[in-house]
Design a protein that fits this description.
Number of domains: 2
Number of strands: 14
Distance between the termini: 92 Å
Shape: elongated
Helix content: 10-25%
Strand order of the largest sheet: 1-2-3-4-5-8-9-10-11-12-13-14
Oligomer: single chain
CATH class of the largest domain: Mainly Beta
Structural class: alpha+beta
CATH topology of the largest domain: Outer membrane phospholipase (ompla), Chain C
Low-confidence stretches: 1-14, 16-35
Strand content: 25-35%
Radius of gyration: 32 Å
């Protein structure tokens, strides 16, 4: 049987990524002189960046950008008299993707809580230029790994639990006809409206093409041409911090639509999938509880940069060093104030006494007091700069020449 385990592990993994140090990505609108910059795409439900289920020919210009995304699709496989919790009807997938050199991506996806897994990635073979007619073109892979019989929902492999509680990996009976590891594809993406909109068209094997020999039981309608996928996006910069993506795609089998809001790198998506199918219907075949009805899908994600995260760790060590320097400066100021008080006391005694060289001694003490006050002034200025977040070009001297006794 299909056992959809609790998503706690995947949610914990996503939470850890969201808690990672470093600056969150800002989706601020590009300046007028750099309108060629394309706003970042969100992650797809199951794999890397793109639309809803399909990839796009796009790689981030920031090397080291990372996406962590938890997608969940409501598959109501358990209908009465079957008894299952609400959580069991949500099939979740966790994907992590990194972008490098403005040219290629690498990622891993963990499927269906059992878990199965597969690598994915793509490389740009042609990059669109501002004002030119041709699109960007990419070639990529999905489901590169040891699970060849995955379907488009990534539930082809399962675990079986016997009466003694022993578990083992199995391939669902209806999934033996699928051959989807790896899935190879090519996709072209053309931007418009100052790169806030785009259209994509691609062709792929495996997950985009194979129906496992199930025919209409697997997909009743929605296919344009087997293996052909397409989609479009339009992004709206709602504010300096908010980017809202409106998307529609056809993944080779189904029509899907959704909206994703991104706030400084944290995204939340709401999707409808298999919109052409309508309601669940037993007349659509023996697998009607899994395929051929409209479904709700959700996603939560995080986008940052591994270099910024590492830089954040460096900044934290610098803050500790600056805090130590502040403590040392305060101690130095206190020590020098005490020295000034001692010198003033000596001066007072010299002025009140009958020393032969009172004027000379007074001049020496006045000079020493002035030196101490100047050192205190430098230390206080440095302390104010540290507290104000400024960093002067040259640090203050650690001390002055000891006064002559």
């Amino acid at each position: 049987m299909r056992r959809l385990r609790s998503s706690a592990l995947l949610l914990s993994a996503l939470g850890a990524a969201l808690a990672a140090p470093g600056s969150l990505s800002s989706q601020a609108p590009p300046p007028a002189d750099s309108v060629h910059v394309t706003p970042r795409y969100p992650a797809t439900l199951n794999f890397g960046t793109g639309l809803i289920n399909i990839p796009t020919a796009w790689v981030s210009q920031e090397s080291g950008d990372i996406w962590v995304n938890l997608g969940a699709r409501n598959i109501r496989y358990c209908q009465p008299p079957c008894i299952a919790s609400t959580a069991d009807n949500w099939n979740t997938n966790l994907a992590i993707e990194t972008h490098w050199k403005d040219r290629f991506t690498v990622g891993i996806s963990i499927y269906s809580q059992n878990p199965e897994w597969g690598f994915f990635g793509q490389g740009l073979v042609l990059k669109e230029k501002q004002g030119e007619w041709y699109p960007s073109v990419a070639i990529g892979l999905r489901n590169l790994g040891p699970y060849p019989h995955e379907d488009r929902y990534l539930v082809g492999h399962d675990i079986d639990i016997d009466s003694t509680g022993f578990t083992k990996e199995v391939t669902s009976g209806y999934s033996h006809g699928f051959s989807t590891a790896p899935t190879v594809y090519a996709v072209a993406t053309k931007n418009f409206a100052n790169n806030m909109g785009s259209v994509s068209l691609g062709y792929g094997s495996g997950l985009f093409y194979s129906d496992g020999g199930l025919g209409k039981t697997y997909n009743d309608k929605g296919t344009i041409v087997r293996g052909l996928f397409l989609g479009a996006r339009y992004a709206i910069q709602a504010s300096d911090s908010w980017l809202v993506n409106f998307m529609v795609d056809n993944d080779g089998f189904d029509w899907n639509a959704g909206v994703v809001g991104d706030w400084r790198g944290i995204s939340i998506g709401l999707y409808g999938t298999e919109l052409e199918e309508g309601n669940m219907n037993p007349d659509k075949g023996s697998l009607y509880k899994v395929y051929n009805y409209a479904k709700l899908a959700l996603a939560i994600g995080f986008n940052g940069n591994v270099h910024e995260i590492a830089h954040g760790s460096v900044l934290r060590s610098q803050v500790n060093e600056l805090q130590q320097e502040q403590s040392q400066l305060r101690a130095e100021i206190q020590r020098r104030n005490e020295h000034i008080a001692d010198l003033e006391s000596q001066l007072s005694k010299a002025q009140a006494g009958e020393l032969g060289e009172v004027a000379k001694r007074k001049e020496q003490l006045d000079s020493q007091i002035q030196e101490e006050r100047e050192a205190i002034k430098r230390a206080e200025e440095r302390l104010e700069q540290l507290q104000g977040g400024q960093k002067p070009p040259t640090p203050p001297a650690s001390g002055t020449t000891p006064p002559k006794r």
